[in-house]
Protein 1
Amino acid sequence: MRIDRNSIAVVLVGVVLLALGPVLPSWAVSLLNVALCYGTVVLGMMLLMRTGIVSFGHGLYYCLGAYAAGLLDHFGKMPDMLLMVGAGAVTAGLVAAVLGLLLAKYRDIFFAMLSLAFSMILYGLLVKTASLGSTDGFNVAAKTVGGIVIAEDSVRIVVYSLAVVFATLSAFLLHQYLASHQGRLAGAIKDNELRVEYMGASVKAAVHRNYVISAVLAGIGGALMAVNIGHIDPEMTYWPQSGEFVFVAILSGTGSVFAPLGGALVFEAIRSFAYEYSPNTWQMVLGITMLLVMIFLPGGLWSLFTRKRGA
Amino acid sequence: MAAILDAKGLNKSFGAVTAAKDINVAVEQDSVVGLIGSNGAGKTTFINMVTGYLKPTSGAIHFDGRDITSLSPRQITQLGICRSFQIPQLFNTMTVHENLLVGVGIVAAAGKRWSSDNHTYADPSKAVDAMLDEFNLGAYRDRTAGLLPEGTRKLLDIAMAMVVRPRILLLDEPTSGVSADEKFVLMDMVMAAVKQHKVTVLFVEHDMDVVERYTHRVLAFYEGRIIADGEPTDVLNDVEVRRYVIGGHIAPAGAASHA
């Protein structure tokens, strides 16, 4: 493990967010909570984009993570937050390990559309499954953390703290992975797959590995969101949800593990305020934001920092 | 000496076009072999077949006694056959250091799994620095590969092939696009590296001065066949080679050095 400046910064940001939890107003906690859940999913999107592929179907793993968490409560009667997040990560990872065997062969629009197709298959299954609430979904209520019962008045802050811990851990581990020999292959594959093969590494295995990692992160994000919102439904795997993750990933940039988390926060803030002040045209505000970012910051919001450093 | 690479009866057709016709080559260890021929003669097709990019229509290729005909480029690389490309295949958005680090990382992550002869790197960062020195790329360490001059791109391409510590190195036109001043500097550097690491080399080249100066043996290709095979002076003075490959107006090989 390589502890560099960025690793320390990730941990420090996590500690600061944890410390701020009890003093932040509830709207800010809610905003951060959603941003951290989204940010965790987008960390995985960032890894895929660094590998040169874009998934338009990561709602699949986000939804699987949420449903795995929900089912643990609904049928398993184990409403423990840690178990729920763990179940979300494992379920998403296992499904991705199977689907990834096929997807790793494809690139560009074929990868994007095939991943979208899988997410829509899950959507179709869920809306037809009455025992899972069909289109309405069902409620999720986490009651313990590691076996410790959570007092009703502290659920909000506990859920927030859990989101901070998992988002920080995800960002920290992803940063370590990207700095490793295996992680460095992502950029190499994006640049030149032929050369990677001619240096003795398997492009397919590396793409598959990165796909599974990104799915695990989406599963964690989905499980955290299920615990946070307290309700899950098939919309979590519907195509606009996957598109939203791509939106945030492009908005954020792929330069650092801070980018997805920061980008998700900016996205949530714009969406919340746009919805508050312009409820009928909030999508237009988001669209204009994306347009401006693509024109003036093609490398995403993160390029604001790298530009400054390079200047 | 036993052949490290043995190609027998290689044929390759693309529809009605025959790119390789009954190629039989046995390459001895530690030798430097030049592959000459006009465009479309079958030199690169031969390299592509040896490195697994193309599968021969018929025939077999053995490396160190093992049949590698049906193996993928990755598996062949792992056995110790590496190549450079006519158009350098680099990681263009990465720096020179990062380009080499990717390769060193692949080898380091594989450890000794690839083959018992494979080298591994205990300290990847030091290994990259050593390679930068060896190929005189230190000045370009932090330059983006996509923005390098062509000669440096060629050199980096070859250095990346050497990262895997191959037993056979195939170079596809290593001096094409390199200025006349730089080509001998580049080849001297490459040959010093391959000699140090005891690598068998096959290289495709159009510059007969380079071929004559660096090879022990020359294979002349014409229309997918090998029309001459032997010592450089003999092959370069061969009547058929002069007619079909070099062109009659060029002074006989060795003439300049004997004058």
Protein 2
Amino acid sequence: MELVAQQIVNGLTIGSLYALIAVGYTVVYGIIQLINFAHGEIFMIGAFGALSTSLILFPGQTALWTLPLILIGAVAAAVAVAVVMERIAYRPLRNAPRLAPLITAIGISVFLQELVRVGYNDPTLFISDANPFDFPSAKQKVVFPRVDGISGESFDLGGIILQRPAIFTVACLAISAIWLWYYINRTRSGRAMQAVSQDPDTARLMGINVDRIIVTAFAIGAALAAVAGVAYGLQTTNINFKMGFIYGLKAFTAAVLGGIGNIQGAVVGGLVLGILESIAIQYFPGGSPWKDIWAFSILILVLVFRPQGIMGAKVVDRA
Amino acid sequence: MNRRSVISTGATLLVASMALTACGTRGGDSGGSGDAGGSGDKVVKIGVISPLSGDLSALGLGIQHSVELAAKQANESGDLGDWKIEVAPEDDEGKPEVGKNAASKLASDKDVIGVVGTLNSSVAGPVQPILDKAKITMVSPANTNPTLTRGAKPVDAPARTYDNYFRTCTTDDVQGPFAARYLYEKAGIKELATVHDKKTYGQGLVDAFSAEYKKLGGKIVAAETINPDEDKFSAVVSSLKAKKPKAVYYGGEYPQAAPLSQQMKAGGLDVPLMGGDGIFSGEYIKLAGKGSAGDLATSVGAPTESLEAGKKFLDDYKAAGYSDPAEAYGAYAYDAATAIINAMKVSLKDAETVEDARQATIDAMKDVSFDGVTGKVAFDEYGDTKTRILTVYEVKGGAWKDVNTEEFK
């Protein structure tokens, strides 16, 4: 029994990461029907933004007060990259056939990965060849800063180990989900976002600035992915330039599983996928070597019998 | 186009992009070579194929610089007459497809006589036949998979696969059992779990380890795997913890082993992690943090600094001022390069061009025998090293300390 609970805790932890990233896929898809495959890289940029903030402002400092600052740094880096990406790469293609932005997204994804890989400690092309803050080479794994109180001893709850970064991750998801619900349903721009998602042309006629809403959607997704990036860094204690790929893939899966375009669906999909993986490692035949086979078989089954996902896709189809 | 077809096209594209990124060459770091040939000298090249970028670049760059050091010293000694050695480093990123391209590039260079590499056994597989066809000698400082020298059935029916292939390190069928004996007999651990990363090296190591450990009477309470692309192993850790192992034997390399060790300790599984030479790197301790104290690794040969020649190598390496440390395989790469150079002394003597001397170099490798910086260097009829000395290292006070050096019988 303890073990089931432990594996559910593990599943919720990793599922929260999936969920935080999946929201970005779903929000953007809900509004412009674009699968932003570069979103996984935004998650990675967030983690590197946090690391850079720590290295620039307080190298070696691990006190708890650094946490809000590295979170802000992560969100700022991720949002900046996402907004620029939308402006340069997606907006010009807004009315192009749907395949075009999809290919662009993959291009951006590779671009961002390589940029961080070769450019992180060597910004020769852009700024100078100096490296005043001693950025480490991102060609291999980089140690993520610790934060006292978050990266310390685990709690033991009657045999169930609760790791502090795991609690932090789940808390981040909870706060983000509540804030997002409030924003979408209770604020003016949130309602404007719903309107654009239902019918952008009419929304525009009603005086809504559609471009601004789209940028907002990218920014929200990026902010949540950045928070996930920090949570990931604190959990695994190291980050790398290609971490966005596999997590982006899993988060996209979670978004589809929950019902693409549906924000609650992304959260539920992420948690379900995380728990499925953990439980599969422990209880399904074959153990860890088979976990992805079980997790994805179940995904296929869900989609065969419920193609709109667990919570149902919430998008007006404008084919 | 409706929504569902967007998703399905998207998924297809994603898969395609996975395939593409796996093929893309990420060169750019390879360029600098040891020596620029002197005026009027005939140039002969020793290639290096190892990961010069990516996760394993710490080990790969150590190999490259050690070969450069060997070449530099050989050039200075003047033993090769008017031949000047140049080093041609190629990045394989630790990926078989990229390694294959690197091998093709070196094979098409008429000045290349031998290659030191690869680091990964999985990369050596596709590299071997390409270099064999070009009759280029290949000496690996780090491939530990037994099948590379002894064919598909290394124990029951050993058969040499490629005449051009040699290695200066011992193999998994020695390293795995050596670790098993240490844990069972010396550390008194009778129950443990194994984890590997599903790659050639990791799986081979764990297989060889498990067979010997069971033979000794030990019990393997769990056999798990991890996905090397993910860094979150908490579910695997919980599953292991339930089986109460006294240690975890890991087959794989430090980029995954370090987070696994860190997450084991954070997840309440406070037992040592032991691995092979793939985790024997300073990077491991850096990434795994304080919890890594007590973790163990086996590596081939005696500790480099414990041998007189080894100490001199490390001093020379330091004096040469390379930007990256020699790491676990530096000394083996140095010996691998020296072996090729020794064979060249025989084969190049009367040769007009490098291409003419290639087969003669392979033939001369069989008779190479010298005291290298890792101990005696000589090859048996399969191309394996005749020296079978291994060492167990333990993380103590933030560094690897050798605890037991023995010859494997």
Protein 3
Amino acid sequence: MGELVLNLPALAYPALAPMLLLFAAACAGVLVEAFVPRGARNAVQLVLSLLALIAALIMVVLRAGKVTAENAQTAAAAVSIDQAGLFLQGAIIVLGIVSMLLIGERTLETGGPFVAQAAITVGSELDRKQAAKESGATEVYPLALFAIAGMTLFVTANDLLVMFVALEVFSLPLYLLCALARRKRLLSQEAALKYFLLGAYASAFFLFGLALVYGFAGAVDFRAIHASVNNSPNNVLLLIVGLAMLSIGLLFKAAAAPFHVWTPDVYQGAPTAVTAFMAACTKVAAFGALARVLYVGFDGLGWEFTPVLGVIAVLTMLVGAILAVTQTDLKRLLAYSSIANAGYLLVGLLGGGKEGLSSMLFYLVAYGFLVIAAFGMLTLVRDADGEATHLSRWAGLGKRSPLFAGVFSFLLLAFAGIPLTSGFVAKFAVFGAGIAGGQTWLVLFGVLSSIILAFPYIRVVVLMWLNEPGETTPSVSIPGALTSTALMIGVLVTLVLGVWPSPLLDLTTNVSNFIR
Amino acid sequence: MEPTLMLADAAQAPVVFAPATGLLSYMWLLIAVPAVSALILLTTGRWADKWGHWLGCASVLFSFVLGAGMFFGLRDLPNRAVQQELYSFIPVGNLQVDFGFLFDPLTACFVLLITGVGFLIHVYATGYMAHDEGRRRFFGYFNLFIAAMLLLVLGNNYVMLYFGWEGVGLASYLLISFWYGRPSAATAGKKAFIMNRIGDAGLVLGIFLMFAQLGSVNYDVVFSNAGLMPTTTILVLGLLLLLGATGKSGQFPLQAWLPDAMEGPTPVSALIHAATMVTAGVYLIARSNPIFSANTTLQTVVVSVGALTLLLGCIIGSAKDDIKRVLAWSTVSQIGYMFLGVGLGGGAYALAIIHLLAHGFFKANMFLGAGSVMHGMNDQVDIRRFGALWKYMKITWLTFMMGWLAIIGIPPLSGFFTKEPIIVAAFARPGWTGWLYGLAALIGAGLTAFYMTRLFILTFHGPKRWTTAKEGSVDQHPHESPPVMTIPLIFLALGSIFAGMLMATPVAQWLTPVLGPPTEEHPKMGHLTITVLSLVLTVAGAGLAYALFRKGTALAPQPAGPVVTAARNNLYTDAFNEAVFEKPGKWLTRALVFVDNKGVDGLVNGLAALVGGGSGRLRRLQTGFVRSYALSMLLGGVLVLGAFVAVQLGWMG
């Protein structure tokens, strides 16, 4: 036994440093909760989180210059911090920083968007008291950091068990974050519970799939799985069913139909800043992991699963687009749009090859900034009951606040894929990759669904500009410095990636290789 | 597929454009100046209200002057075409798209039309919109439109064209909806948006198909290799491009939005929905002439769309009583002539472009004339309530008359020189189809004469039928518009008179490097016979309209036979769209919503209700229950598993 203990795998600390730093900062955040006086906690937590994220980002960037095929894998090849992995980590951290700015916003309402003590019964005397006075929980910062750290591990996991652990590490904080809304607490708690139950359900699929794959390959790391495809004496059905179940677990996180059902409820119920975080970062993590599973672990199957995943992509695009048309709540509308976007991402992914991967990476970044900015805008339209997200309330907003409505219209046009926004380039890239990969039918459905999807966006634009504001039209709050910064970053990136996308496209092309 | 390899094998001479030098290397300024002006107009505050509209005019005039300079700069170049690549827009692997411009004879024609006519309409609009508090913003959108339209015609690849395409669509959408208060304006904007999206989808798919087949979307590569694509691919590609063209140009089956778009201010109708944007479809086909010329089936489809639309537009135009709508349907019909031209191919490409240029003058002239009439008549648009206006607005009357004579093709006005050759070319089509399309074009000429004369007579002649205060409306005191509006009218009227005569031959030669040389026509009947026939038909149509309407008309719609009723209802094309596209779409959406929110849930609840409980929970705010979500995930999971296994075992082929 003693020998076994001594045979710990070597750890390449420079490669793991960003993750370790984030986990350490999250733990430090927990300590801050315990030792720093209440009044100073918010500031300390915010600065700590942002500094940790920025430091992690710098480490990722520095690491990107040094990574080679030889030194990419560490911890007995359990994690593979390769070029693509570093890009995904970087994307998650950057989007995490921007979302953190939204999460840190405290000026829009007294105490911020989070409840002080989530455990207090909704509607009780205590609850009314805390709603009126107490400032929001600062535990959200370490929770978000844990989630981000988990995601960075998730996208570099080179073995199914590590991937599963990372999945749980980033999911659990997200469930909690969903429950912490200050307003409409019942809705928020319901969202969290739904997300938790269904998330656990999806994890079970993933775990079951993991077991079956292990049954076939006798190992859980991608290199062994890849090698076993042609060599294992076991029935290949084990592998196929295992892959299907793994995909279900991952497609759940990616919000692809028919595993999308949780998305609208959770996006609507969660605090908007958390929704923005989920829509941007979880998407990157889920697709990063899905790409790694398909490209690295199951590449040997010759992509025979493409038709099945293609049907899922088509279904996802159509369900997202068509249902977005009838939504009357902006958060739900964006939720369905996020579902449809998962479909477009799948088109890029299934395009296969370097082009498919690079177009997907580009799309993830472009969409992440866009969606964070859009949800950030939603936090600004408020009335006495908090955010006014019902569509009818936005009628005539263009007359009241032309700047706000102008920026939001721009974002909606980007969602609709109008040229000179990042939305156009991103869609063009994934559809181009789909065509190049011979998946013309997917592109056909992609173009069709994006036509349908343009309609709900434009309806919002029309509603804002072409209606007279009524007495109940809510006011647009002046955003604080944090939200302004987040919005500015989101809008700028959307514009720049629309006009001059080649640097990022070059980068995604260069990093599009996983190390097996 | 390696494009370079294919280039070497190409049977036809590869298309090569010279790099831009000198003045021509400033092409980007053509677009940048109106775009910057739009930005200034849209972002500055009220303090810019005083001079904003003049800035808008000046930026377009600048582009016109610059464009004219470049036009002359082209003359001495070998194939009269230059291109310039600014930067690489999308540089991924096989997917190479540049941000680049192309300036050749075809582009030059469009640049001069867009900026020239555009400038006159801008000047007119300073007067027309003088009392509108949103004038500065209006000019901002107007400049934005000009910039986008120039981008459309200046791009050196299809993606650039698509940028402009979306841009003009957006600007048009904004300008149609400009009159916020009116719900009909918003509805019209929506309709334009949907129909254009359908067309755009065709264009996008076409671009992707090009990329898949040729690995490039640049004009030079695509045109050099067009002949090497398989016949079916060319056909599909052409049909997709045609779908895009019909959407933007208001051709069958996507014609319904164009007349509704007249809800926008009149200068918008003149600039966007008559002179420039709606001709983008013609530009697309003429630009893609190597693709369309490569497949005869494709050409037949284009010709059929053109012929059908030109008749459709004439018939519906004859039954409308709204001055702008008559003009709108006449636009649909005239663009039908242009589609007929570009579909015929060969020398008729140039004929279509010449007709397009002439049409830009006389239609803008008449739209602005209609605006001038409305200006003097308290925004009345019903031609049944005009009459005898020639006494009160002499300049408008005379200029409108020039437009009227030009469009019906009375020599020596421009329509005669530009429409006639298209009719002749249609007759020259080999086989019985020559008769079919030739006769369609000929009948169209007669019908055009009828409805345009009806419009002219009812508006300017006959007894006064103005609204009065007694019948609950206002008393009319018609008056001539201010000089800032009439001067552009006079210029456009001069264009309507002389443009055709001056342009017919030189422009055809000018366009030779792009569209091929003019061809000898051998029509079914003698050239002279056709000319005489069409003149006789024109005079007959005009005479009939004069006889019927010189004494005015009833003030309200009269009961009519099936043909007129059908024409009043746009030949039931709207009803057709509703039945075939809208209703199934709505049903599909409803069904999906039902399944998504209630379907699985309903199943579970139904069962629960059967055993006597659970129905109370339906009152909850959220319709979704976790258990039904989980159930649908499970069902989906089982299906996915089954599909994976089925694919693996080869059950799905």
Protein 4
Amino acid sequence: MSNAAVTAASASPATSAGKSILARLGAAFVGRLVIIIPYVWLLFFFLIPFIIVFKISLSQTAIAMPPYTPVLDFSGGISGFFGQLRQLSIDNYVWLTQDALYFNAYVTSLIIAAISTVLTLLVGYPIAYGMARAPATIRPTLLMLVILPFWTSFLIRVYAWIGILKPEGLLNQLLLATGIISQPLIILNTYTAIFIGIVYSYLPFMVLPLYSSLEKMDYSLIEAAKDLGCPPTSAFWKITFPLSLPGVIAGCLLVFIPAVGEFVIPDLLGGSQTLMIGKTLWNEFFANRDWPVSSAVAVILLLLLTVPIMLFQQAQARAQEQDK
Amino acid sequence: MIRKALWLSATSAFLTLFAVGSHAEDRVVNVFNWSDYIDSSIIDDFTKATGIKVVYDTFDSNEILETKLLAGGSGYDVVVPSGNFLARQIQAGVFQKLDKSKLPNISNMWDTVSERTAKYDPGNEYSINYMWGTVGIGYNIKKVQTALGTDKIDSWDVFFNPDSLAKLKDCGVYVLDSPADIIPAALKYLGLDPNSTSPDDIAKAEEALLKVRPYIRKFHSSEYINALANGDICLAVGWSGDVFQARNRAVEAKQGVEIGYSVPKEGAQMWFDQMAIPADAPHVAEALEFINYMMKPEVIAKSSNYVLYANGNKASQQFIDKALLDDPSVYPDAETIKKLYTVSPYDPKTQRVITRTWTKIVTGQ
């Protein structure tokens, strides 16, 4: 935009005004377009699907195609459309509060996701730190090694853990052969197996943002701290960790959010007693064929995840403004 | 330059249209069946015989199929849902009535099966049986022998009696994660009507299942195949064909694992997989031709010999491997067949009670 303005200003004064307005309009249009694209993306791939799901959550289940009523259309004209709208109700949300099942499932999912996130952070941080401090020549190789597992199907990788963790599996055979244990450990079909599965599957999502924030860190700060007599551990907590905080937050969100709705890992590795919201949603959708209630479960899950993040962002923005 | 590019794109667009146009002249049928459920040479033979190209796609759960069908516009011409799912889907208007005049081979079908499938599809107007089987007990013969002192399992008692199942706890028990298959079995064991929708009866079934719940390692509808075959578990309540698959895998693996399957003497649930044509199928004529071809005795026998399930085609039995036909766990004798029961689909309200009960049994909540 500024370029266009400069060119226009150097032209004769009589035409400069017209030209510059046109150029400005054009540049502004391009600028707008660049901003609009992500919004259009969000509109089509987030907002509209969400509105559809929200609408289904206000409908009633029916034995029909699609299996809910009313289906909004304009076949009955505008008045017919409003008639259909009046049939929508919040009954399904009320239903969710009447059975403790849903509340328990949400809570269990949040707890499992939170524990997994902390474990992933504990495992991922040293890895990212090691990578960031490694010689620059081998960093691309290390980065590659973190990304490499993505080239195999997620399902196959989770399935492979069954072979490792089962009572006659690789891990137990190894531990038995080395004499560390005398009885095979029962890990498969327990919460431990779920944690192992989630930590393993989501580790790259934690390592990558951590690595990118640790790599950018200026290590002369640590040297300065050392010179001033600061022991390494407190130098870590006073300098390294606070500077890597954006990476920590990004990594935790990237692990926590998908872990809450995780279905495959608890289904394959977890025991049947594991009650998570993903399974509850599956039951509502597939076993009960109740698309409206399962939509309501999904809407609540979405709110549960996005509202705290939005509040957090707002609080952060406010804190930043206060710093200024 | 631009003009040239425009020309190029216009001609290529035209060519694509043309290609699509000529493609439409090829006769096609889109089949959506269970995975591992056909001898694939049948598909090639069908194409050779009729010139109809088969686009064969597979699913592994009724629920996935149902969701595609209920959403509409699935594009499939022949689908194979199980009986109780079929019944509900017919009610929802998913299927079209079959034009029986295009299905002359229907005379080969077996009345013993057709009478029962009529429970889901009155008059068998919408569907033709593909395969059928039972819900019974698959077990690791050696491990059960060690734990119980006998390898003869012929009753639900081995599963529903807490004392007996407790002995099998450590070697592992898996159960189908499917209330519509397990709750009726519990009702049958208790001497109640397996079709009962009364909340009292369902509560009794729940009680019976909760008593044995501590000894069940996992509820899952497919993992037991591998778990049985690998010798990871010693007992599974599952579908007949899946257990036979486990048995074959165990034989192939040569690890000394032997798998048995029992149809309990109290009676077991019969299930049916039915071929049907969606109401919005794009190639109805080809679909009918495909279904008619599948009813040829030697064709469906070939499929049974491969997938190890019984089929509902009486005339095919002369072409079925003797070992399979004589296996009472695949083709039970007339006496046992009388004891087999079918379960009608639940109405939405009962379904909710059943699912909720099941969640309580499985998760304890």
